[in-house]
Amino acid sequence: MSKYIAAIDQGTTSTRCIIFNRQGNIISAGQKEHQQIYPQPGWVEHDPEEILKNTLEVIAQARIKAAISAADIAAVGITNQRETTVVWNRRTGKPYYNALVWQDTRTGDLVNQFAKEGGQDRFRAKTGLPLATYFSGLKLRWLLDNVPGLRRDAERGDALFGNIDTFLIWYLTGGAEGGTHVTDVTNASRTQLMNLQTLAWDDELLTTFCIPPQMLPTIKSSSEVYGNVVLDVLPNVPIAGDLGDQHAALVGQTCFEPGQAKNTYGTGCFMLLNTGAELKTSTYGLLTTVAYQFGNEPVNYALEGSVAIAGALVQWLRDNLGMIKDSAEVETFAKAVEDNGGAYIVPAFSGLYAPYWKADARGVIAGLTGYVNKNHIARAVLEATAYQTLDVMNAMEKDAVIELKSLRVDGGMVANHTLMQFQADMLNVPVVCPAVSETTALGAAYAAGLAVGYWKNLDDLRQNWGIAQTWTPKMEEEKRSKLYKGWKKAVERSFGWEE
User: Fold this and answer.
1) Which residue in 452, 446, 459, 410 sits closest to 22, CA to CA?
2) Counting CB atoms within 10 angstroms of each CB, which of 65, 137, 185, 265 has the fewest?
3) 285 vs 397: CA distance, rounded Å
4) What is the pLDDT of residues 133-188, one digit of tens each?
C-alpha cells in the first residue's frame, strides 16, 4: 500500500505541496510565492498561469526532498483560497483575464445594484451569504460584462469558470485533452450561486446574475476520486480531496462535532463553528456555509466569521511603511511596550467583513498622541487581529446560542506568542494550537485519504490530533472591557469613508 498522501495548498500569497504520513506528520514540503497584482485601488489580481506553474514546481520540490516516487503517494488533496475567480478557454486552456482575488472590491457597484431590490440580505436565505464584493458570483458577472468576447464564448460553452481548485483539477487531469471540470460543495457554497439546501446551482440566482450555466463546474463532495493526474509530477495519482482553505482547516483540526470551532490566522482571519446537519441562518453578521461532505455522507454546515485583513496588516507594515524588515520582527517591537499606548488600527482596506459587512469602511489609525511610537503601532497591528476575532466570537455565540469553551487555532500568525496570549486574554477562553500547525493542508490530505481508504474513518483522524501549546487568559475583566471599548470606538470611525 502507498505510504503517503500529498496535499496542494494554493493560498493567497503562495502555493505549497506538503506530503503527510499516516500519523498526519509532515514528511516534506515545497513552497513558492506568487505575484500580487494591484492594477488600481481596490483591485487585486493573480496570474492563474503563474499559480499553475508554481503548483507543478512545488509538487516536484516536495517529492525530490522526500526522495519518493509517485507510486508512494496514495492520493492528492487540494485546498485553495476561496472565492478567487478564474475563467479560461476550454479548447486552449488559456485564461481570459487574471484571477480576481477574494479581496478584490471592483464589484462594489454591482453589489449596490442588486441590493436596491431586497437589500444586502436578498439572497441570504438560499446561499447563507449577504451581497458583498467577497464572493465569486459577482466577480464572474464583472468578467462577463468587461472582458471582450467572454460572454459570447461562455454562451457557446467554450469558456469555463472555477475557483482555483477547479482550475488546478482541470489542468492536472488533462486540461484541454479531457480535464475534469469539477468543484466541491465547500467552494461552491462561496460563489453565491449554489443553493445551500439542494447543494446544486440555483437557476434563479444564475438568471438574476446573468451567468450561463454551461460555464459552471459539476458540484461533488469534498472527498471522492475526481480523476487521476496525467502530468509527470504525479502520474496516475488520484485527486480525491477538494476543500476551500477554511473548511480544510476545520477538517485538519478534527472539528467534526457540532459546537467545535477553529480560527485560522493567515492573510485574513477565518473562524468556523461546526453546526452539524443543521443549517443555521445568522442574524449577527456571520455567514452560513457548508463545512464539508465526505463521499455520500450527509453534508455538515458551519457558521463562519470572515475577517479580510489579519497577517496582511503585518505585510503592509513591512512592505508599504517599511517599519519592519521581516514579518517576525513585529513581535519584537510589540513586546518592547506594555500596551498599545491608546492606539488602535482598524484594517478595513477593502471594507469590513464579519460581523459588520461595511463595504464603505476604510482603514483608520485612531487614538494617536505624541506618546505613541513604532512599538505601540506594532502592538496595535497585532491586536487588530485579536479584536476582530473577538467581534466574530461574540456574534457566533449569539447565533449558535452556545458558549465556546476553547478555540483551536492554526495558520502562520500562531507562531506569534504575543498575539496568541493577547487573543486568549481578549476571548477569555484558552487558545489551543495543535501539534501539526499546517492544518489546512492536513485537512485536504485527510479528505483525499478517506476517499481512497488510506484512513478508515474519522476516529483514525482524531487519534492524530495532539496539542502543541495552550495559552490561558491572564487579563483582568476591567482591563479587557476598557481595551475592547476603545476598539469599538475605532471601528465606528472607519464606517462610511467611501462615498
Assistant:
1) 446
2) 65
3) 12
4) 989 999 999 999 999 999 999 999 999 999 999 999 999 999 999 999 999 999 99
How are beta strands 73-80 and 238-244 bridged, if at all?
Answer: parallel
CB atoms closer than 10 angstroms to residue 463 = 12
E strands in 11-72: 14-20, 26-33, 45-46
In whole angstroms, give the CA distance from residue 447 to residue 6.
11
For residue 89, give every residue at least 6 positions away whose Cβ sits within 8 Å of its Cβ, in sequence order, or none. Answer: 96, 153, 158, 159, 160
Compute the 3-state secondary structure of the chain and give helix, strand, coil in percent, each to the nearest 5.
35, 25, 40
**Secondary element (H or E) of residue 63:** helix 48-66
pLDDT digits (tens, 9 = 90+) for 455-486: 999 999 999 888 899 999 999 999 999 999 99
Give the containing element (helix H, strand E) for 489: helix 477-494
At 378 the three-state DSSP class reads helix
Q: What are the beta bridge partners of residue 432?
A: 408, 470
Q: What single string gives the DSSP state of each residue in 416-438? A: -HHHHHHHHHHHTS-EEEESS--
Q: Is the pLDDT of residue 354 over 90?
A: no
Asked if 427 contacts 484 with a C-beta cutoff of 8 angstroms, the reply is no
Q: 312-317: long-range contacts at Cβ-Cβ below 8 A with a sequence spacing of 24 or more?
A: 312/103, 312/267, 312/268, 312/347, 312/349, 313/345, 313/347, 313/381, 313/384, 313/385, 314/381, 314/382, 314/413, 315/13, 315/267, 316/347, 316/349, 317/377, 317/378, 317/381
DSSP codes of every residue in 153-205: HHHHT-EEEE-HHHHHHHHHTTGGGT---EEEHHHHTTTT-EETTTTEE-HHH
Check if the beta carbon of residue 143 is closer than 8 Å to that of residue 96.
Answer: yes
The DSSP 8-state label assigned to residue 328 in this structure reads T
Q: Among 243-247, 395-399, 412-416, name the most confident range.
A: 243-247
What is the rounded CA–CA span in Å between residue 194 and residue 432? 34
Helix 417-427 crosses helix 374-400 at what angle (to 10 degrees)?
Answer: 40
93 within 8 A of 168, measured Cβ to Cβ: no
Return the C-alpha cell found at 247.
473548511
| φ/ψ of residue 43, rounded to 5 | -95, 130
Contacts of 62 (CB under 8 A, 6+ apart): 6, 17, 18, 19, 28, 29, 30
Assess whether the previous peptide bond of 355 is cis (omega < 30° from 0): yes
Q: Which residue has 464564448 as its cell numbers? A: 153
**472: its cell numbers:** 490561558
Q: How many CB atoms lie within 10 A of CB 127?
A: 24
Can you tell me the distance from the alpha carbon of 270 to that of 181, in angstroms, rounded to the nearest whole number?
A: 27
What the block records as the C-alpha cell of 286 is 456571520
